[in-house]
Design goal:
This protein is α/β, with parallel strands linked by helices. Helix content is about 25%, strand content about 20%. The protein has 5 helices and 6 strands. It has a 6-stranded parallel sheet, with helices on both faces. α2 packs across α3. The longest helix is centred in the middle third of the chain and has 20 residues. The protein is globular, with a radius of gyration of 16 Å. The relative contact order is 0.15.
């Protein structure tokens, strides 16, 4: 019901070689609970990228998250838009899986590329072994890392296990 907003906005980032369809489960779960979810295909890293996907574009995906936020907030303000007034610009989070989890970390914490409008970041099995504690000190953004010990692509011990030490006040599930 359009009169019930505004709702928190979640920008969902897909994993390497995946697509926007990866977010279907999150959309099905979150939207009925009162969230607006925006998910897009990142042109260079999605599974249908011309010439094949490339992982090296991940650093640019933090800017893509900001673009999505800009676009969604613009629609939130546009008279007559189906999203008009439905998004709370003070409650925005970045959530992503695997490479998308790294995107969420970059969008939330990168010293120069982070989006200060984010109020939380969630990384689901996102690579983070190469990110030192100092990387996460640019903000006190709430952070959740969700990971499994049997992950063959993004190993738990170097990527997820150190997160409580790297990010003050973070949670690891």
């Amino acid at each position: 019901n359009a009169g019930d907003g505004p709702y928190p906005l979640i920008v969902y980032s897909h994993g390497f070689m995946s697509s926007v369809a990866e977010a279907d489960y999150a959309v099905d779960f979150l939207v009925p609970k009162g969230y607006v979810v925006a998910a897009v295909d990142y042109p260079p890293s999605n599974g249908s990228a011309p010439g094949g996907p490339t992982v090296t574009d991940v650093i640019n995906q933090a800017g893509d998250v900001s673009f999505v936020i800009d676009s969604m907030l613009s629609r939130n303000e546009a008279v007559g838009d189906s999203l008009q007034g439905l998004i709370d610009p003070q409650r925005i989070a970045a959530v992503g899986l695997s490479l998308g989890g790294m995107t969420s970390q970059l969008a939330g914490f990168h010293p120069t590329e982070r989006d200060p409008r984010l109020q939380a970041a969630v990384s689901i099995a996102g690579p983070s072994a190469m990110l030192e504690r100092a990387f996460f000190e640019s903000t006190d953004l709430p952070f959740l890392m969700i990971a499994g010990t049997a992950d063959a692509i993004v190993p738990y011990e170097p990527n997820a296990a150190p997160m409580p030490w790297k990010v003050d006040g973070s949670l690891l599930v």
